[in-house]
Amino acid sequence: MTDSVFIAFQTNDDTRAIVEAITHDNAAATVARFPAMVKVDAPGRLVVRRESIEERIGRDFDLRELHLNLISLSGNIEESEDEFVLHWGN
Amino acid sequence: MNMPISGKPPKKLSLKENYALLTRGLGWETSYESMDKVFPQCDFEGIKIHDWDKWEDPFRLTMDAYWKYQGEKERKLYAIVDAFQQNNGQFNVSDARYINTLKLFLTGVSPLEYGAHRGFAMAGRNFKGAGASIAAQMQAIDELRHAQTQAHTISHYNKFFHGMHDPIHMFDRVWYLSVPKSYFEDAMTAGPFEFVTAISFSFEYVLTNLLFMPFMSGAAFNGDMATVTFGFSAQSDESRHMTLGLEVVKFILEQDPANLPIVQRWLDKWFWRGYRLLALVAMMMDYMLPKRVMSWSEAWGMYFEQNGGALFNDLARYGVRMPKYHDVAAKEKDRLSHETWGIFYNYTHAAGFHTWVPEEGEMKWLSEKYPATFDKHYRPRFEYWRDQQKKGERFYNKTLPMLCQTCQIPMGFTEPDDPTKICYRESHYRDNKFHFCSDGCKDIFDFEPEKYVQSWLPVHQVYQGNCFRPGTDPTAPGFDPLLEVLKYYNFNVGKDGGEYLDSEDKKHWEQWTGKPGVSI
Ligand SMILES: [Fe+2]
Ligand SMILES: [Fe+2]
Fold first, then answer.
1. Where is the secretion signal located (chain A) (predicted)?
2. pLDDT per residue over A6-39, tens digit each?
3. Which numbered ligand comes closest to the C-alpha of B110?
4. Which of B189, B437, B213, B220 is nearest to B329 (CA)?
């Protein structure tokens, strides 16, 4: 079994588009909803793509805006202007 | 300005280049004092760093972005706090029992935020590498923000409910608050590498999800929009802090193979210290939230065993193994909250918050969530206490408990393999006997006895007469030592603590809201 990475956000209008983008780009991702919080788990690797968010949110998006609504995450991080990746292993 | 007069404007820097200029570009090698003298704390822990440039920055958040996003978080938070106050949100929570989690939070957790502010300011100063130093300094600012926003948010509740009037004074004195206090001061009095391993990695990465995710989600579920907002606002910084913790540990391990045994010992120690501290959270989740989101046992399974397990699997390539005694924590997960709530039920007259026997519907939930233990070990005790209470004999334990020398929790936890037998461990050091709640706490003492013999144990201090206000005369006729200790704590005696059903908080809640004091 591959270990999961996860990312969790506050539930709000911005993160609705973000979570949609993530589930679109990560076929194996599963979404769990809690009061005021949404948690996305994915086996081994999870990618957040700027373009996918922009398509859904209808404006330019700087991936660092993720910080505003981020609750927690796990995994090693790779970050660029276009992608924010969580993964286990090298 | 040095804008070129003609030709193309300079190319915009990439995130990576930008961050490298901030972190590497602002650091320099000292010349008229040696680097070792300028950073005297970098070596004594035995950690060997050969090349600080190998430091990988987690989250490349440059200063302009940092202030922009932090400012935005603050505006969001305070808008919600305003709306909450204007809407009398304090009366929209599930019931007034819930408020007791805020009392514990404000007195037991918020002072740790301030401690973290101080600790990371020191760590930032003491790291030789600019990348690590900047990350620690940003965190120091974040932590100050957390302490402030929590005080601001909860101050509104202080206008209506007891127990929230003097958190810092209490933190430095009250018996159960010495648990978080000693935990954090243990970390702050270590060197910079142990401090960040303890706080950023073991606490923030491995354990705080248990505090902030299910508990804050629970606050929302109980109608407390103010608390969930400061909680999640703090947690949005936490992701950055957690990543710093993981980065620090990987960096140390990659720098020199000799670092591994030191780091592993820290991971063992700080897992156990942090886990013991979370006993308070376990009880908040299972007993103090009138509307429950998930049980402690479920949260432990999800956030430690599953997510934490994945983390340690990943670190196995550096030779790191799971923290020692994680198996004991697994054995305790169906007992921890019940045993801890039992301790506070006993001593609530000497606490700054109320306790109560769970209602029948709540016991049903506990039976479902803890099928192996609740009906067998804990329900009978609650039913007995409930009967006593109905007879007007609510039980208060008038004898002070023995405390664990390391975690400072009353010795009420049971043997890993026998939930009916209290666990006692002891060590001898310099002609004295020291007592521990567990093998984990004993190991920590045995490795650094000179540190832990100095523990300020509240019960010892009370018996030594050190917990009275100046001018108190213990020989005066009618002297009541317990009352005097509570005054020293600056408790509002008889109002801050004791049985919830008899409390003024409950009475006020019913008068002001017209709703029952127990919603279940
Ligand atoms: Fe914090
Ligand atoms: Fe202990």
1. none
2. 999 999 999 999 999 999 999 999 999 988 899 9
3. 1
4. B437
Indicate whether A44 belongs to any domain.
yes
pLDDT in tens, B317-355: 999 999 999 999 999 999 999 999 999 999 999 999 999
Residue A87 lies in a domain: no
In total, how many domains does chain A have? 1
Interatomic CA distance for residues B257 and A54, integer angstroms? 44
Residue B73 placed within a domain: yes
Residue B206's CATH number: 1.10.620.20
Using CA coordinates, name the residue in chain A closest to B309.
A3
Q: Which domain holds residue B138?
A: 62-335
Q: Which CATH number goes with the domain that contains A29?
A: 3.90.56.10
Find the mean pLDDT for residues B4-25.
74
Q: Which of B218, B220, B236 sits opposite A70 (nearest CB)?
A: B236
Q: Any CB–CB contact under 8 A between A4 and chain B? A: yes
The structural domain count of chain B equals: 1
DSSP secondary structure letters along B74-121: HHHHHHHHHHHHHTTGGGSSS-TTTHHHHHHHHHHTHHHHHHHHHHHH
Question: Which residues of B fall within a CB distance of 8 Å from A18?
Answer: none
Q: Is B501 on the interface with A (CB under 8 A)?
A: no
| H, E, C per residue of B413-443 | CEECCEEEEECCEEEEECCEEEEECCHHHHH
DSSP letter at A48 equals E
The residue of chain B nearest to residue A35, with distances taken between CA atoms, is B217
Residue B415 placed within a domain = no
Identify whether B340 is part of a domain.
no
Q: What predicted TM-score, i.e. pTM, was given to this entire model? A: 0.93
Residue A21 domain-assigned (yes or no): yes
The ligand whose atoms approach the alpha carbon of B405 most closely is: 2
State mean pLDDT over B24-45.
Answer: 90
Beta-bridge partners for A32 = A39
Residues whose CB falls within 8 Å of the CB of residue B145, separated by 6 or more in sequence, listed in order: B70, B74, B234, B237
Share of chain A above pLDDT 70, in %: 98
Of the candidates B393, B392, B411, B390, the one whose C-alpha atom is nearest the C-alpha of residue B401 is B411
Q: Show the domain range for A72.
A: 4-79
- Cβ distance of B232 and A79 shorter than 8 Å: no
Pick the more confident residue, B406 or B12: B406
Which residue type sits at B110? S
Q: Mean pLDDT over residues B98-123, rounded? A: 96
Read out DSSP for B4-33?
Answer: -SSSPPPPPPPHHHHHHHHHTTT----SSS
Interface contact flag, B216 A10, Cβ < 8 Å: no
Q: Give the model's pLDDT for residue B239.
A: 85
Q: How far is the CA of A66 from the centre of ligand 1 (A)?
A: 18
Six-digit token pair at A48?
């957040």
- Taking a C-beta distance cutoff of 8 angstroms, is the pair B138, B239 a contact? no
Q: Give A27 to chain B, closest Cα distance, Å.
A: 20
Q: Which residue of A has its CA nearest to B218?
A: A35
- Of residues B16, B240, B311, nearest to A74 (C-beta): B311
Residue A84 lies in a domain: no
What CA–CA distances, in Å, run from B238 to A35, B139, B310? 19, 9, 19
Instruction: Note whether B13 contacts A: Cβ–Cβ < 8 A.
Output: no
And the tokens for B15?
A: 């995130």
Q: Test B242 with A72 for CB contact under 8 angstroms.
A: yes
| CA dist., res. B418 & res. B424, Å (int) | 12
